[in-house]
Amino acid sequence: MPNEPGLWGAGESYERYMGRWSREVAPRFVDWLAPGPGGACVDIGCGTGIVTSALLERAAPARIVGIDSAPGFLELARTRVSDPRAAFKEGNALALPEADDAFDFAVSGLVLNFLPDKAAALAEMARVVRPGGLVGLYVWDYAGHMQIMRHFFDVAAALDPRALDFDDGVKAPVCRPGPLRELLAGAGLEGVEVRAIDIAAAFESFEDYWTPFLGGTGSAPKYCMSLTEPAREELRERLRARLPTGPDGEILLAVRAWAAKGRVAG
User: Fold this and answer.
1) How far apart are CA 142 and CA 107, in angstroms?
2) How many degrees, rounded to 5, is the angle at CA 21 between CA 194 and CA 49?
3) Which keywords belong to this entry (predicted)?
4) Model confidence pLDDT, tens digit, residues 107-116
5) Are 250 and 204 in contact (CB under 8 A)?
6) Residue 132's CB: how many other CB atoms inside 10 A?
7) CA angle 109–48–41, rounded 5-degree value
């Protein structure tokens, strides 16, 4: 749902780039959120339906409304999530097309850092959840243990300072425990908790790691495809030399997300 035209329009490209890793984080997030069965949920910035799917499989909600501003993501979500409890609609995270107190809980996965007014987004999440209901979200640890992107931008910035303009580790200081806790508390949420969710990202080869950066969907791929062919080739070879590679060409990287949750006052 980011308000950056052209950044997130291609659902299949996103799946190859970050969707496959979000698909591993989402079930862990849902288990930690523990919303209880039978409730109504809104998934804000639902993307290709990854969090919605995890909720349907593990939390037994009565219904879920997925909202996103990217038609390409919504089309893919509708294709992949056929459960009748789920519905998807186009909308803006800063002005949700839902009534006050309409849901028992609200979630958002990998969206917050892209929104221009993060406090307003949290206020909207709290507005549509009944008193006592849950609000939860997760974001990548861009500046730390999100090594897929950290390796990429560390190498890119050493070659070209312009890369810093795309680096979410620099652009998204909210993606840390302290700022997340303050943001949720500032929205009036109570009992705020923040925790790390860690997974391992295994790539069969360097090509398996590199190819998603050519899709143009997301900050790093957008930067990568803005380069001239010689500059992109230099970045590629510098990355190849830097990444920890096993004897059969496999690459194993650490991936961390920060998850946060709290309850609506009242």
Assistant:
1) 20
2) 85
3) Methyltransferase, Transferase
4) 999 999 989 9
5) yes
6) 11
7) 55
In terms of Cα–Cα distance, which of 234, 239, 230 is closest to 205?
239
What distance, in Å, lies between the first and last C-alpha atoms of the chain?
Answer: 29
Q: Are 48 and 68 in contact (CB under 8 A)?
A: no
Q: For residue 228, give every residue at least 6 positions away whose Cβ sits within 8 Å of its Cβ, in sequence order, or none.
A: none
Question: What are the strands, taking DSSP E only, across 49-175?
Answer: 63-68, 86-90, 103-109, 129-140
Q: What is the pLDDT of residues 150-203, one digit of tens each?
A: 999 999 999 999 999 999 999 889 999 999 999 999 999 999 999 999 999 999
List, in sequence order, every residue forming a beta bridge with 226; answer none if it has no partner.
none
The CA distance from 217 to 7, in Å, is: 5
Whether pTM exceeds 0.70: yes
Burial 226-260 (b: 16+ CB within 10 A, else e): ebeeeebeebbebbeeebebeeeeebebebbbbbb
89, 91, 92, 129: which is closest to 107 by C-alpha? Answer: 129
Map tokens 């390409």 to a residue: 72
Tokens of 96: 């949700």
Ordered domains of the chain (ranges, CATH): 11-264 (3.40.50.150)
